[in-house]
Amino acid sequence: MHPPVSAAARRSAQRPTTMPTHRYRPFPAVDLPDRQWPSATLTRTPRWLSTDLRDGNQALIDPMNTARKRAMFDLLVRLGYKEIEVGFPAASQTDFDFVRELIDSRRVPDDVTISVLTQARDELIERTVQSLVGAHRATVHLYNAAAPVFREVVFGFEGDGREQCTAIAVDGTRSVMKHAEHYLQSGSGPTEFGYEYSPEIFMDTELDYALEICTHVMDVWQPETGREIVLNLPCTVERSTPNVYADQVEWMSRNLPRREHVALSVHTHNDRGTAVADAELAMLAGADRIEGCLFGNGERSGNVDLVTLGLNLYSQGIDPEIDFSDIDEIRRTAEYCNRIAVHERHPYAGDLVYTSFSGSHQDAIKKGFDALERAADAAGKPVGQMPWAIPYLPIDPKDVGRSYEAVIRVNSQSGKGGVAYIMKSEHNLDLPRRLQIEFSQVIQQVAEGEGGEVDAETMWSVFESEYLCRADAAFVLKSFTTSSEEGVARVRAVVNAFGRDWPVSGVGNGPIAAFCSAISEQDMGLGGIGVRVLDYSEHALSSGGDAEAAAYLEIEVGDEVLWGVGISESIVGASLRAVMSAVNRIARTR
Fold this sequence. Notes:
Strand order of the largest sheet: 1-8-7-6-5-4-3-2
Strand content: 15-25%
Helix content: 25-40%
Oligomer: single chain
Shape: elongated
Number of strands: 14
Structural class: alpha/beta
Number of helices: 18
């Protein structure tokens, strides 16, 4: 007898494809055996720079016009970004004019630094600096590609090309300083001027050479106290796993001279889909500053998403120092400016990200909210001041301006939790657990029959039709009176059954039992039915003198068990109507 075959052995083997995998090589690892970033923890917010108006705009099929640029700039200022790259003024008259408009119209707050990008050519640098005349705070961002493939193939430098490439960066830095001295340090108000340098294609540049070229640039700029330099390490085309990029950043951070005067910046792209991880691991590795765009706009697969990064920090209890409290307005403005829709599944901002279709997820979310409310009551605090711990929701949707109504939507895959949550949040009906199960089955039938979702309005219509007695129902409670003497309750009522009024009366240990006795003793068209209460709960629907009450009764009617629901101005009235609800549900099946 052969031994049993393991599951792994039974698994069908995946087959090789005919794709030309041999054309690609693994990205080289960094020799950093004592790397420190894996044991680091994020505890602070980086400096942010938005490049929506430069990198984001240049990647649009339909670049922003002036009105859309103004809307984007104003949004970024309102959100709290203090460094904003506003254009590439030497590349187009449109960008130049926009920079001038921001300055001349005094649209830039005094605590906001605008940044402009330039290539390392003297005439372009001069034009770039000219665009900043009159700015209160401004940074010129100079770049040149430093990777071997650019030095050898694109530029055709001799040998390894390092000397020529370094000369471009050094001469460009001198040119920036010369023109800044001429245009920005004279006149009525000298500009608080800063400098940023990027060895473009950093991720493909030899680390020793990236350090060498940055050091030469620093030697020209001479950073010191009050005169920082921003050194930006672009992951221009994402080609490695995030841990490799983190190694590169840590290596640079540990080896840069005058590190205390350097703002180490990263600019990650999303070609492999991990730009956010690149940036977060880079922060662990020593990065001080992040460049990116709202919702990840940018060339090819986009830049790192500043919204996701910021709210990731927020979810860890770190203030991102950017106001994301109205995420829908941020999204609307970005969609208007970029003319690109934000995906429904986009983290924190998409239409569906605070939505659960799975029944088990919905049930867990409802239980989480219930537990949070109980904890808040016990602590004597508002729910909004309690620590957040809700299954499947990394942050409270209310914190970003979303409402709980969107948290759970119901379709054919939904269970009792989603149904119960919407009934409570939308209609203030706190359904007992077994009623949740029963009604969720009704909703599931509707969802499967009609397809798609069951929204809150449709759910209420189904609930009303299934449980609440209408004037044309088979059984309608027309009137009732109750009395009690020595623990015995008496009910006298008039019930309209199939168009005929029946006066009934009964006694019991309470009004509900007395009413059930009364209708059980009278054949009102169903051949005589026995009605017995198995479970009961009630609650007020609102506060105040005119508040209504809801009652839920699990009732055995003959040999069937089902729920009835009643709503009335009094608890007794709601309870008797709940009995009628259950009887009507029996009548519909006979």
